[in-house]
Amino acid sequence: MKVRCPICGISCLWQDNPWRPFCSERCRLLDLGNWAAGDYRIAGAAASPIEEEEEDP
Description:
Layout: E1 2-4, E2 11-13, H1 25-36
Antiparallel strand pairs: 1-2
């Protein structure tokens, strides 16, 4: 079965592909970088900031 790489769109084999669903390690790392940079977001309400508790001396 052939699938399209979600990063570059090249058609690649699914079976025996160590980087699936990507076509190559490069595309896999680009996707990981996009997640780390915050380029992918899940829609939802903004998170409230966490208030730091003061420590007793």
